[in-house]
Amino acid sequence: MDNTAMIGVQYGLDTFYFLICGALVMWMAAGFAMLESGLVRAKNTTEILTKNIVLYAVASVMYLLVGYYIMYSSPEGGILPSLGFLIGDENAVDVVAAGGEDAPYYAARSDFFFQIVFTATAMSVVSGAVAERMKLWAFLAFAVVMTGFIYPIQGFWKWGGGFLDEAGFLDYAGSGVVHMTGAAAALAGVLLLGARKGKYGPNGQINAFPGANLPLATLGTFILWLGWFGFNGGSQLRMSTIEDANAVAQVFVNTNLAAAGGLIAAMIVARLMFGKADLTMILNGALAGLVAITAEPLTPSALQAALIGGVGGVLVVFSILTLDKFKIDDPVGAISVHGVVGIWGVLAVCFTNPDASLGAQLLGIVCIFAWVFIASLIVWAIIKAVIGLRVSEEEEYAGVDISECGMEAYPEFTRKA
């Protein structure tokens, strides 16, 4: 086989792999929908399902219109992005036909699709944190700005070759760029939105609002666990060489073991603290392990990956309890899973990757969190002033399914004689 033909085969294989990994990450949208609908009360299920499927469509369109251009057509080493529209022409095939080391090894459209699903993942983090009391259209208005501008700007700083990349900040698949970003935006919204009515009592008591469907929440976690193999594995970007194929295999193994380590650690901590195996903490422990390993799933050994995930599982339990003490109401634990553990994941890179610098990792954490939190706070505040963020007390009591969507997820059927 001549060189041009070999390049074509590699191009096709890497493009196919990239697209399949993107499809796995897209399936994570279903995981978020199931997880969140299982952890909210029955009267709010339809609305949260609506948010999850609509935000994916909004992310797809906004990333097409402006997001992709901002993230990947801005000046290298820069802070301020370029503003442009759409994604340009696909001309990689002509370059590949010419061969050479500079030839792209996958279709540019496959990269665009892969980046869309990452954008939607960051926005999905926000959905669960503001559940059960936010207006649907306020949430969707924020999704437009988040997926079109806030997320792509900080994404450019690292993955688009901006100043964080130049500074040596490492984030393989997005513990900071995706997960901490979503959590920072969620935290800003929750602070302006306030807690659900009755969640916190006048004497400091914390009232539990059990989820309506734990089987769905567990299914959602399994779907997210599966999708994460595409999330981390696809971030290797190719697998047509022996070196890349081995790297992808290591990433898959580490991703799986980090989730397992996080789950087991969270279960043990919950048992020691509560005397019970709390399923919601177990589910969040698995997700915390996945978030923790996402910043560097390649360089750790399998045992190190399990330990990194285990630390994430411990952190998430204490973080959820701490946020409740501060009356920061997050119905699904998204801020803890993706924010607190996202920070841990970025820092954990320093333990296994010799190229990592603690200073660069801290710089990335501070810059990304500050930008996303402040920008989101401003956008949330504008939305609050224009259309309001929160439904009325009566609508919240009855459930947002009826007021926002006009239908229930679990209607009561009666048979007439």
- The helicity comes to over 70%
pLDDT < 50 stretches: 94-99
Number of helices: 15
CATH topology: Ammonium transporter fold
Largest sheet: none
On the 0 to 100 scale, the average pLDDT is 93
The first-to-last residue Cα distance is 75 Å
The CATH fourth-level homologous superfamily: Ammonium transporter AmtB like domains
Percent of residues in β-strands: under 5%
Radius of gyration: 21 Å
Count of the domains: 1
The CATH architecture designation is Orthogonal Bundle
Find the count of extended strands (DSSP E, 2+ residues). Answer: 0
Form type: globular
Structural class: mainly alpha
Give the H and E element order.
HHHHHHHHHHHHHHH
CATH class, please?
Answer: Mainly Alpha
